[in-house]
Amino acid sequence: MSGTNAASGAAPCRFAHYFVICGIDTETGLEPDELAGENFEQSPLKRTFKSKVLAHYPENVEWNPFDQDAVNMLCMPKGLSFRTQADSREPQFHSFLITREDGSRTYGFVHTFYEEVTSPQICSAMQTLYQMHQAENPSSATPSSSSSSSSSMDSLASSLDEADSPSSSSCRSAACGGYDASRDTLYVSKALCLITPMPFMHACRRFLSQVHRAVTASLPPPLPLESYVHNILYEVPLPPPGRSLKFHGVYEPIVCQRPGPGELPLADFPLGQTFPLLGVENLVQLFNCTLLEMQILLYSQDYQRLMTVAEGITTLLFPFQWQHVYVPILPASLLHFLDAPVPYLMGLQSKEGTDRSKLELPQEANLCFVDIDNHCIELPEDFPQFPNKPELIQELSEVLLRYGISPVGGAPPTSSQQALRELEDDGRNGNLGGEQLAVLELLQGNATLERLQALAKRTGVRVEALRGVGGEGEAQGGRTAVDEEELRNAKLNVQLREVFASRFTMMFADYEAFVIQSAPDLESWLTNREQMHNFDKASFLSDQPEPYLPFLSHFIETQMFATFIDNKIMSQWEEKEPLLRVFDGRIDKARLYNVRAPSLRSSNYQRCTILKESGESEETQAIEQRLLKIDHTAIHPHLLDMKIGQGKYEQGFFPKLQSDVLSVGPTNNNRWSNRTATAQRRKDRHRQQTEHLTLDNDLKEVEGCLVLQNSMAFWEWDKSSPPPLKPPKSLPLSYMQEARSLGKNLRQPKLSDLSPAVIAQTNWKFVEGLLKECRMKTKRMLVEKMGREAVELGHGEANITGLEENTLIASLCDLLERIWSHGLQVKQVSLPKLRCVCVCFFLTPTVSNGPERRKSESSLGMPSLRESVIQDMRHIQSMGEIKTDVGRARAWIRLSLEKKLLSQHLKRLLSRQALTKKLYKRYAFLRCEEEKEQFLFHLLSLNTVDYFCFTSVFTTIMIPYRAVIIPIKKLSNAMTTSNPWVCVSGELGDSGVRQITKNVLEITFDCQNLGKLTTVQLGHDNSGLLAKWLVDCVMVRNEITGHTYKFPCGRWLGKGVDDGSLERVLIGELASPNADEDCGRGCRTPDMQHSPGQTRRASITSMGGRGYKPTSAQIQEAIGEAVNSICKHFHKPEKERGSLTILLCGEVGLVGALELFFHNGFKSARLFQKTVFVWDFVEKAVAYMESADQMGDMQETAEPLGLTCVSLCHYVSAINSSPRNIGKDGKFQLLVCLGARDRLLIQWLPLLVECPVIQRMYEESALLRDRTTVNDLIAVLQTLHDFPITLEASLVKGIDL
Predict the structure, then answer these.
(1) CA–CA gap between residue 866 and residue 930 (Å, rounded)
(2) Torsion over CA: 1250, 1255, 1258, 1260 (sign)
(3) What is the DSSP string of 344-374?
(4) pLDDT band at 226 (very low <50, low <70, confident <90, very high)
(5) Angle ∠(119,653,638) on CA atoms, nearest 5
(6) Average pLDDT of 670-696?
(7) CA dihedral 773, 779, 783, 785 (to 10 degrees)
């Protein structure tokens, strides 16, 4: 127990916790591993046998208990492997990790080699197994492969590590997959493992390699192996953060280093191997799937490849961490884990020659299968792409090419040095290996050493023993070639990780403003964690560029993002989590450069600015500096108090170590370690005090300049951002030095220059800069809204367009926050609170004392709508989706901007001068009267364009709508006894059928945001005595934004009147707030043939008047304009397009123009008969075609024409069979829309023209009977076939085709 206590006491700071040996237990013999699922029809040399932990030192570490089963499975995931002298026995290396219940990880590094089997019982058992197998499978003795015993060890070797098969006659039996104890030598795998708390992969690999080399060398090592194992277990500490450590292996020193507190976390697995395995594009897709927490399965024969890819991907997640099942190497006995219905990241070892199609995998829609060996990836069915993926791939490819690595998966290395090195080291070419060549050159260049070599030959000492003296080939700066390779890998790791880290820094630069910190203490927060909202997702998404939204809306729902936010909240009571600390430091650093004028949010890709032109960053330079100057050196291995005669050296066999000396920690060097730790603490404390004093001096120097007025006023703004008001106390010295390096664009006046005149002048420049920025932002917003036409007219440059509306408005919110925060009297406001004070400061109940303006809409038949700051604020506060004050402030800005009241609201707020003087200093922007007026004027210019920045962003909120039906009041049929209903549809959905109380003609209802309104379905049930209803229009208003839509009707609803419609689909547009007073009250009744539709242009309206017949030229012009409008619609950028429904069904649309064409020369008015409609002509034509088809007249018609007849009859029948009572004109409208959508209009027109019915229903001069005019119409309609016309659900509702 004393040993255990000693071990556990020093465990947290030790480099390694355990040294483990796994292999065959000669006492229990060969035990088949049934859990591995091996095929017993295979040769015994290819079967899997159970391995065991032969020894581990120390026995136990208190805070990291030894899990024998887990370590055994991961050291030898496929159990024992047997070989003969005919097989390759190259040692292999792989790593693994164990995740404990608390989420912490322990890393294992395994060096596997082959040791000769000396146990007669094991050899005899293998011989017996082979004879039994040969008797049961006589055909298996046929030679089928040059490699006889491909077993679990093959999985550790990549295809590049295959060795030459010997050609001696002793391997004949082995070549047949057999084993003969009298002729063959049997070897079995054995594993040496180091278990460490941190992933120092390169250092552990070199240490284990040297230990194995000591076993296989002809001469024993300088010290017993126990000395080296004891040294790394107890006397080698973890390197402190930001420091390097050198310790000694058996032959050469080993160096490792640890990143500093402000650097990216430790990642020792080389990304330079991960990217070539998959290719940049596949790896970015895998990275995306990992962020979205899908099920990810890695597949490879090589265990180390599985670990390298898994660790590489999780490393790139910074600042986030994978929170689900993480098993980079899944042992064969745990394959049932793949059926888990949860996100996971697992690695599965593939058997050599196994067909991918035979692999049984769970059929999950979100499974990402990664075949590493074949450099391919199978992606899930549907998932959002990572923002700016092509640009990210391009930047990563440039970094890889800079290091001579191809960005294409599976491509050969582009560097010729590696190929040359392999050629030189190839013994088959007659060349000496790299190490032997170095020794040879050393001997040839020194006469003394040449004589020593001759003496060594005479005495029988081999030259290879000199390796322990000479070490590996020296490279520049005294570093070995291996050190240079590790340095290169470390630099590449940092540069690739920086590219990914910069993407997250840009996307989540303002995440802190949307964190909801409502709990007073940690205990109450932990208690109510499940019921609390921690992040204002709706407000955060409303600020993001539109192309980012598909990815971000999924990502912020993941567990890794939730954990990240939880860590942020807990950091106010506990020490910050390391990843969060580094990430927040990077955001602070970005703000240091951009505090004056933050970079505009944009979806344009911004490359990583940390990497310089040479590709070097401060972190890569720090890595190289730590290697040049080693900070710490561990105690050298030394002789231990061991028993004499035990553990005798025997070449090729790992000795049995003395457990008594390895289970107890050091007793004579505790004072050394304590003294070293104390000295180091003293040294670190002195360094921190020095940095703290320097930082304090810098802060005092800055504050000394600001003693009279606000600090921001004393910095001259010259196309760049000045430093912050007051550098945070947590910023390290390097940040202050970087701020000083901005002197190219910033000039700080001397203390002696701080006269009142200088202060006033510099403050004026700052205020002027804010005003200039406001002018530029409003101009950008106007130019972007006006589109390309504004650029063509000279109102802007082409390069300032292309920014999303979301991005521009979020940038405007940033500017308003900075204007509102400038010169505040409140000094003790923390950063998060300051951001919400910026805009919300005046939004208090005191504002309601002012007069409220009511928007008069009585002329439109709508009650007036209150317009006040308080009313809008109440709407925002009632939105449960918004959780933070910053989110509410920005939502209020969006709402005011959409209502075109932003300038008016802010003017009212600023009119309270007494409160302004109380809250703001004299030099504040909001107290500069002239600049304030110009600022409000620039905001007023935004009223010239229509914004839907509130409606289009908060799509899930509940919004109250008011609908008013306006009948023709001058007629007696203004009211109806039937039960009316209405259904309002918009771009985001519909309200469903809403019943209206009889004779009320008004309804208010709440439903989820419908977006911009497009159609209204109005109808009644035709009950009662007064069932006929003459409706002028329907008005619908969004009660939050105030947007009012007018849906003209001017038609009857009822059986036996007009076209017999009980339901009409009305097309609407946004009503102008400056409409004429009598536009809704005294409207004349439009001509019945033109409904449904909207208010026409003057030319077409005049055509629809009573007693007026448009000319042929006017009708053809109307059709041309309608088709041209649709073509323009599709040629515009998608964000500039209007409503296609209006262009199709509006009175200036295609349906209205074709109605004019069909009504020309139509015999509609009959004496003492019902009015005949165009739909009657269509029905008669279809009836004629059907009767002709039944009589056989259509059989002689050409086949395409016959099919066209069938389609027309089918569509007309489907429209007549619809349960909707939309009337005859509504049916004709529907037929035109469906024909335009399905590209059938130009096929139907010739059928109608050729039908004999046309002679009875149309005059001789009708356009429809003029073949030339009809052909011209067909040619015009042909142009619509190039565009994908889609119809709203409200138009085609109930139609079954």
Answers:
(1) 30
(2) positive
(3) EEEEEEPPTT--GGG------TTEEEEETTT
(4) confident
(5) 140
(6) 45
(7) 90
Classify the C-alpha dihedral 1039-1040-1046-1047 as positive or negative.
negative
Token pair for 674: 């304590």
pLDDT in tens, 517-556: 878 888 888 887 777 778 888 888 888 888 888 899 889 8
pLDDT of residue 735: 37
- Which residues are CB-neighbours of 426 under 8 A, at least 6 positions away? none
- The label of the residue with tokens 């567990």 reads 559
User: What is the structure's pLDDT at 675?
Assistant: 44
pLDDT digits 0-9 by tens, 357-392:
667 776 666 788 999 988 888 888 778 899 999 999
What local confidence, expressed as pLDDT, does residue 830 receive?
40
Rounded to whole angstroms, the Cα distance separating 577 from 568 reads 8
**Among the ranges 88-102, 689-703, 857-871, which has the highest mean pLDDT value?**
88-102
- Per-residue pLDDT tens over the stretch 973-1001: 566 778 889 999 998 889 999 998 877 88
Residue 717 has pLDDT above 80, yes or no: no
Helix axes 280-291, 389-402, angle to 10 degrees: 130
Instruction: Of 1144, 1250, 1254, give the one whose Cα is nearest residue 1204.
Output: 1250
Cα torsion through 138, 140, 141, 145, rounded to 10: 170
Residues near 1152 by beta carbon (within 8 Å), at least 6 away in sequence: 1090, 1093, 1096, 1100, 1118, 1122, 1145, 1146
666 and 10 in contact (C-beta within 8 Å)? no
Please give the helix or strand (H or E) that residue 280 lies within, else none.
Answer: helix 280-291
Query: How many other CB atoms sit within 10 Å of the CB of residue 264?
Result: 22
pLDDT greater than 80 at residue 475: no
Name residue, tokens 């839907």.
948
User: In sequence order, which residues have a C-beta less than 8 Å from that of residue 902 and are 6 or more positions away?
Assistant: 893, 896, 939, 942
Alpha carbons 589 and 727: distance in angstroms, whole number: 10
From CA 945, how far away is CA 968, in angstroms rounded? 33
Task: Report pLDDT digits (tens) over 584-641.
Answer: 888 888 777 664 444 556 677 778 777 654 556 677 788 888 888 888 888 899 888 8
Q: What is the DSSP letter of 1095?
A: P
CA distances 235 to 95, 521, 682, 1123, 1185, Å, are 23, 42, 21, 85, 99
Q: Can you tell me the distance from the alpha carbon of 631 to that of 680, in angstroms, rounded to the nearest whole number? A: 10
On the question of pLDDT at 113 being above 80, the answer is yes
Amino acid at 185: T
User: Which residues touch 272 (CB under 8 Å, ≥6 apart)?
Assistant: 400, 403, 405, 488, 489, 492, 493
> Torsion-angle region of residue 1107: left (phi > 0), alpha (psi -120 to 50) or beta?
left
**Which are the contacts of 429, defined by CB distance < 8 A and separation ≥ 6?**
423
- Determine contact, residues 1262/1116, Cβ cutoff 8 Å: no
**Is there a contact between 506 and 552 (Cβ–Cβ < 8 Å)?**
no
Query: Do residues 241 and 22 touch, judged by C-beta distance below 8 A?
Result: no
The C-alpha atoms of residue 599 and residue 593 are separated, in whole angstroms, by 10
Other Cβ atoms within 10 Å of 773 Cβ, number: 18
β-pair partners for 255: 246
| 8 Å CB contact between 311 and 164 | no
For residue 529, give the H/E element and its range. none
Q: What single DSSP character describes residue 1170?
A: P
What confidence category does residue 469 fall into, taking pLDDT thresholds of 50, 70 and 90?
A: very low
Q: What's the CA gap between 78 and 91, in Å, rounded?
A: 16
Give me 694's structure tokens: 């320097």
- What tokens were used for 1155? 């109605």
